[in-house]
Every structure is written in C-alpha cells, then in structure tokens.
C-alpha cells in the first residue's frame, strides 16, 4: 500500500524537477503577453526536460560531480534562480548596459 506522504512527495518532486525550472526560463525567453498560459505550461515541461538532465550531465562530465538526489536538487534550484535573476535584470538593463558593467568590473581587477 502506498502511503499518502509518499504520494505527496512524488507530486511535489515532479513539479519541482519537471516544471519549475522551465516555467522560470519561459519568462526569460518570452514576455508575459507574448504566449498563452497553455503554451507556457507546455513549454515549461519541455524546457525542464531539456535543461535539468543537460545541466546534471555537464556537471558530472566537466567537474566530476556525482549524480545524486541532493546534487540534482541543487542544480534545479540554481537553474530556477538563474532564470529568476535574469528575468529581473531583463527589464532594468539592456544587453549593452550589462556588457559595459562586466567590462568595467574586469578592467578594475
């Protein structure tokens, strides 16, 4: 018999890994009014299915990070956080502003 806690854990884990990173990145790639919600939801699943395994496998290949539940969770949080940060900066700065800021920091070091 499957316990109710295990069912809830599976549901939240699936949303966390299979939906959340793609949903955050869909706002980076498309403005709020540019696509409908049903398109955004479908795109969220597709982006998550593409981004999470690629990020985990590249970390394993490049840095030798072992693939485990904790490391996958950290990758999902990092992908979601990167998308959220990019979305916040998207409205405040243009690409030229960000490049000038980066160039200024590199010259100061």
From TrEMBL:
InterPro entries: DUF1616
Keyword Transmembrane appears in the UniProt entry: yes
Domain named DUF1616: residues: 6-88
Keywords: Membrane, Transmembrane, Transmembrane helix
Source taxon at top rank: Archaea
UniProt signal peptide: none
TM ranges: 6-30, 42-61, 67-87
Protein name: DUF1616 domain-containing protein
Species of origin: Candidatus Methanoperedens nitratireducens
């Amino acid at each position: 018999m499957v316990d109710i806690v295990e069912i809830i854990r599976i549901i939240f884990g699936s949303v966390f890994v299979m939906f959340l990173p793609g949903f955050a990145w869909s706002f980076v790639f498309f403005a709020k009014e540019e696509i409908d919600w049903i398109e955004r939801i479908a795109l969220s699943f597709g982006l998550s299915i593409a981004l999470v395994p690629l990020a985990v496998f590249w970390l394993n290949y490049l840095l030798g990070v072992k693939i485990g539940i904790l490391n996958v969770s950290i990758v999902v949080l990092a992908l979601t956080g990167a998308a959220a940060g990019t979305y916040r900066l998207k409205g405040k700065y243009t690409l030229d502003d960000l490049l000038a800021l980066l160039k200024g920091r590199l010259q100061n070091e």
